[in-house]
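Deliverable D2.4 — example input (structure tokens):
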């Protein structure tokens, strides 16, 4: 299963996909075996999509785990979306700013939604040409300075890391 949070060229290059997976665009939901995926409409900017359009937040539920992928979230989600994403086991959230929420915006969403484990994404790296921030400011705001990246993360019911994980 491949999910597309929005229709920008750097996030939905279907010509690069190998095989024939199920591809979810927009608010398409999916139930497959024990996996359910719901989409919640939001915005890629802080002016109700006027600058960058729509964004869809995905909520994956499987084996008693709830994982939220915020996509290119650009604002505080609406109250009904916040209720749908709250108390997630894992939340993947952009923190780099410019095109998405910045470190402070991400922290505000996290404080409201209260996920157990947070994985920052959409950050500046050595291979990223976009003018976005590194994860440093977010780590500082979250009290996670010095967090070392892990190459693998095993999450199971009852064994969810707490706090920020790189």
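Example output (designed residues):
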């Amino acid at each position: 299963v491949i999910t597309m949070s929005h229709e920008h060229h750097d996030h939905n290059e279907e010509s690069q996909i190998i095989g024939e997976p199920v591809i979810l665009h927009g608010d398409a939901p999916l139930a497959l075996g024990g996996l359910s995926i719901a989409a919640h409409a939001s915005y890629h900017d802080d002016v109700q999509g006027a600058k960058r359009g729509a964004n869809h937040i995905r909520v994956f539920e499987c084996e008693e785990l709830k994982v939220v992928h915020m996509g290119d979230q650009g604002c505080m989600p609406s109250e009904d979306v916040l209720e749908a994403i709250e108390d997630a086991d894992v939340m993947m959230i952009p923190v780099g700013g410019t095109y998405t929420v910045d470190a402070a915006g991400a922290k505000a969403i996290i404080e409201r939604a209260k996920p157990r484990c947070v994985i920052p994404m959409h950050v500046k790296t050595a291979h990223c040409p976009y003018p976005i921030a590194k994860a440093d400011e977010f780590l500082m705001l979250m009290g996670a300075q010095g967090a070392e990246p892990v190459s693998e993360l095993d999450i199971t019911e009852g064994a969810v890391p707490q706090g920020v994980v790189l």
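The two ends are 23 Å apart (CA to CA).
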